Automatic annotation (TrEMBL), chains A, B:
Descriptive protein name: TetR/AcrR family transcriptional regulator
Record carries keyword DNA damage: no
UniProt keyword Cell cycle, yes or no: no
Alphabetic keyword roster: DNA-binding
InterPro entries: Homeodomain-like_sf (IPR009057), HTH-type_TetR-like_transc_reg (IPR050109), HTH_TetR (IPR001647), KstR2_TetR_C (IPR041490), Tet_transcr_reg_TetR-rel_C_sf (IPR036271)
Gene3D superfamilies membership: Tetracycline Repressor, domain 2
Highest taxon in the source lineage: Bacteria
One Pfam match: TetR_C_24
Residue ranges of every copy of the HTH tetR-type domain listed in the record: 20-80
DNA-binding region location: 43-62
Amino acid sequence: MATAEETGGAEAQPWAEVTPDAARRLLMAAVEAFAERGYHATTTRDIAGRAGMSPAALYIHYKTKEELLHRISRIGHEKALEILRTAARREGTATERLADAVSSFVRWHAGGRTVARVVQYELDSLGPDARAEIIALRRKVDAEVRGIIEDGVATGEFAVPDVRGTTLAVLSLCIDVARWFSLDGPRTPDEVGALYADLVLRMVGAGK
Amino acid sequence: MATAEETGGAEAQPWAEVTPDAARRLLMAAVEAFAERGYHATTTRDIAGRAGMSPAALYIHYKTKEELLHRISRIGHEKALEILRTAARREGTATERLADAVSSFVRWHAGGRTVARVVQYELDSLGPDARAEIIALRRKVDAEVRGIIEDGVATGEFAVPDVRGTTLAVLSLCIDVARWFSLDGPRTPDEVGALYADLVLRMVGAGK
DNA sequence: GGCCAGGCTAAGCGCTCGCTCACCTTCGGC
DNA sequence: GCCGAAGGTGAGCGAGCGCTTAGCCTGGCC
């Protein structure tokens, strides 16, 4: 939240806030496993094995398997929200801020594809309370993007008939990157970010 | 394939081709269950129960639980491909055909949200052979949309710097509808289809 | 050196999973 | 009226699941 991390943000060590070292290793192993096979198809034995520990060790640091998913999901959503807030609140025109928001949001989904997959697609595996908390975070994410688009409409930079629908479509486009993006594919995260920023500016009628 | 079904296509009885009546009921039950909870979290007892049968009955009509997913996935992809082909091969300008393709493809993802979810998000749960077959179908889907965009570029209707990337984005946008769309939400499938067709035309620089 | 708290493991509990098997019903053809 | 195939059931198998428990190390403090 208040960290001065400015290294570009890829996902070098994004789990520094998870404090006992073994707990962090378990959490990173869970991210990998959930992203590869999905939450329900992942066993606690698999997670512990990837972290180089016995199955029982998991339960010293986490109460249940679901708590792991919950923690991953919350940290991931907070990171996503931080990225969008940074872009939304910088100086510049609405056009510049929207392009920045989309390209950095897409870069995060492409580069941190494993985390993003878990965060975006395993929401339904959470219990009601945890899910409600995550949904609240998502509403904040939506509000950031909608804010930029509303600004652009107000200044006349954008021509958007349906602000809410367009916001939804922009976010949807970015999020789905986590589904199809592969590091083996022909594009780098930066390239996809630039392409998508251009496409989104066309969608809102900027630079017309 | 050669059926003369012209009823509008929503998804009134889309499983008519699944021949023993009990097999169709099981398949429809599986679609519901997979869409709600995901493939791995769904039990064969749950599927059989929804179809009003005992767990053992499933194995009279299907060899494994995975065969059910495979069948659903293939039929769903064939239907999606048929929708796009119909739009791509009708008469009209590239602009009209692209708008038609996007709006009908989106309508299918929104209206048949349960099927679309299974089809689009449970691909990784298939074995290698079945997955390869489905991926081949997806390439055909991609080719249809790319064809329309290439036509538009050739006639000068569209201004698209990166045809492959834009094709990917258009399909991605449509497919992700299955993730977020809800019949309880404020929009009907028709409305989302119209909104998205407009956004996509902006993305390709049509009507500029 | 004695002690104890924290981190970890081997073993395994109770349960549910996908799937099978022996048997039962229904029904058209003769 | 009898028969065999097709479609269904109840009971239960071996396996693997999430999670627990009893006990073993290790290291800091007096």
